[in-house]
Design a protein that fits this description.
By secondary structure, this protein is an alpha/beta fold. It folds into three domains: 3-98, 3-Layer(aba) Sandwich (Udp-n-acetylmuramoylalanyl-d-glutamate--2,6- Diaminopimelate Ligase, Chain: A, domain 1); 102-322, Mur-like, catalytic domain (UDP-N-acetylmuramoyl-L-alanine:D-glutamate ligase), CATH 3.40.1190.10; 332-484, Protein-Tyrosine Phosphatase, Chain A, CATH 3.90.190.20. The strands form five sheets. An eleven-stranded mixed beta sheet has the order 11-10-9-12-8-13-14-15-16-17-18, sandwiched between helices. The chain has a six-stranded mixed beta sheet with strand order 19-20-24-21-22-23, sandwiched between helices. Strands 2-7-6-5-4 form a five-stranded mixed beta sheet. Helix 14 links the parallel strand 22 (398-401) and strand 23. The relative contact order is 0.08.
């Protein structure tokens, strides 16, 4: 795909030009190692390295143009240089222009928040396709262009990859796209230049403080997404979250609210819950859903509200929602022949873990114990580790602390951090088993018929990341193998 530099660099971003803006570009990249002959190189200041230090390397590999915040010491006469104030923000706009503004041809709804993003975007994607539409999906678990899966590497791809995906969606006939928008992506300006038809706020709780430093910074990052929505877009917010109204207080978009507890534009009530589903009232209509838990009631209500705001008919939407299967790794339950039930869930924040445990508490019968297997990721927010353990211990009959993507840390160190949240009176019901496979096996063997084993933290993930290497590991697979050996 050939474009002139003039056609993809926003004129209002240009501070100074050296060389010709008529230079033809056949691709663009911010990674000097991926530059090929005829490419445009964008020098980005990252958290680990400054792309300006690799301009010469990009030129050696064949770059014919460079967009930067400062010119290099040596200017090559055959290269076009464009100086801008912010290359990160400019990258998104250039990527959009290079792929011929694909987000303008789609109705894109971005969903941000701490918990519920993946479930809600997946529900919406399935919902629209079930009702005869053709939608794209960009999520933590997977990306889809219509029915075609595309591997996902980040919650929100970089600006170039994002626009490449949008272009493929448009070319394949998609008219809608539902995507997760992470706080990292907002701060790193990966969604700059994307035209959103709507934005959804799910909730905000303790997470990512290793990156944002303070909870206030984390809130500000999320809010930036809504601050930039255009007037013709909608902003749907969960007002049961104390920061729900904060998110939309400065948005130019049309604001709508949803709630399980307060007066709102869209309301839901949980009437009954069982292990295999729950009875809800949404918009004064009762429906049975196969998902369970108050947190999933919020996800289902949000999906319904977004579909309604996009113009889909009420009854068709509710009928389709009632047929939805649980999202992989989100409160997936499996039963052994001897009556033990396991729940596999992605809960990896204190609030998400509390939600799952609270849901199990509401549906378990007298005499049924809850055994929770939980860990915390390495090289991530350490402040939530003791809180995770505290939440697990308070709501469970027994807790096994174990490894969960230790990355470059020692699993035993992470477990010791978690133990700081366990009160002296609760120590007796806590075990520490570093090997996750053995921890899951122990929990299942300790369970008696009717007991529930919660395996939290990894959900859909099919790997354990240890010392920079990803080893195959799937919580659900482990449970299935163990349950085969348990007889009634």
């Amino acid at each position: 795909m050939m474009r002139k530099l003039l056609d993809i660099v926003p004129s209002n971003r240009i501070i100074e030009v050296k060389g010709s803006l008529d230079t033809p570009i056949n691709n663009l990249s911010f990674d000097s190692r991926r530059i090929e002959k005829g490419n445009l190189y964008i020098a980005i200041k990252g958290t680990q390295a400054d792309g300006h230090d690799f301009i010469a390397q990009a030129m050696e590999r064949g770059a014919v143009a460079v967009v930067c915040e400062r010119f290099p010491a040596t200017i090559a006469p055959e290269i076009a240089y464009v100086k801008v104030a912010d290359t990160s923000a400019t990258l998104g706009e250039m990527a959009s222009a290079y792929f011929d503004f694909p987000s303008k041809a789609l109705r894109i709804v971005g969903i941000t928040g701490t918990n519920g993003k993946t479930t809600t975007v997946t529900l919406l994607y399935r919902l629209i396709n079930m009702m005869g539409g053709k939608a794209g999906l960009i999520s933590t678990v997977s990306n889809y262009i219509g029915n075609d899966p595309i591997p996902a590497t980040h919650t929100t791809p970089d600006a170039i990859e994002l626009n490449r995906l949008f272009r493929k969606m448009v070319d394949s006939g998609c008219t809608l796209c539902f995507m997760e928008v992470s706080s990292h992506a907002i701060v790193q300006k990966r969604v700059e230049g994307v035209y959103f038809a709507g934005g959804l706020f799910s909730n905000i709780t303790h997470d990512h403080l290793d990156y944002h430093n303070t909870f206030s910074e984390y809130i500000t990052a999320k809010k930036m997404f809504f601050d930039k929505l255009p007037p013709e877009a909608f902003a749907l917010t969960n007002i049961d979250d104390r920061n729900g109204r904060v998110m939309v207080q400065n948005t130019n978009a049309r604001v709508y609210t949803y709630s399980l507890r307060s007066m709102a534009d869209y309301r839901c009530k949980v009437i009954e819950q069982q292990m295999n589903g729950m009875l809800l009232s949404i918009d004064n209509t009762e429906l049975w859903c196969r998902l369970i838990g108050g947190f999933n009631a919020y996800n289902l209500l949000a999906a319904y509200a977004v579909a309604n705001l996009l113009g889909f008919e009420k009854q068709s939407t509710l009928t389709a929602l009632s047929a939805m299967e649980p999202v992989r790794g989100r409160f997936e339950h499996l039963a052994a022949d001897n009556g033990v039930v396991a729940v596999v869930d992605y809960a990896h924040t204190p609030d998400a873990l509390d939600n799952v445990i609270s849901t199990i508490t509401k549906i378990r019968q007298e005499g049924q114990r809850l055994i929770t297997v939980v860990g915390a990721g390495g090289n991530r927010d350490k402040t939530k580790r003791p809180v995770m353990a505290q939440v697990a211990v308070q709501g469970s009959d027994m807790v096994i602390l174990t490894s969960d993507n230790p990355r470059n840390e020692e699993p035993s160190d992470i477990i010791n951090d978690m133990k700081q949240g366990v009160a002296a009176s609760q120590v007796g019901k806590v075990l520490s088993i570093v090997d996750r496979r053995e921890a899951i096996r122990t929990a299942c063997l300790l369970a008696t018929p009717g007991d529930i084993v919660l395996i939290a933290g990894k959900g859909h993930e099919t790997y354990q990341e240890v010392k920079g290497i990803r080893h195959h590991f799937d919580d659900k697979e482990e449970v299935i193998e163990i349950f085969k050996s348990l007889k009634a």
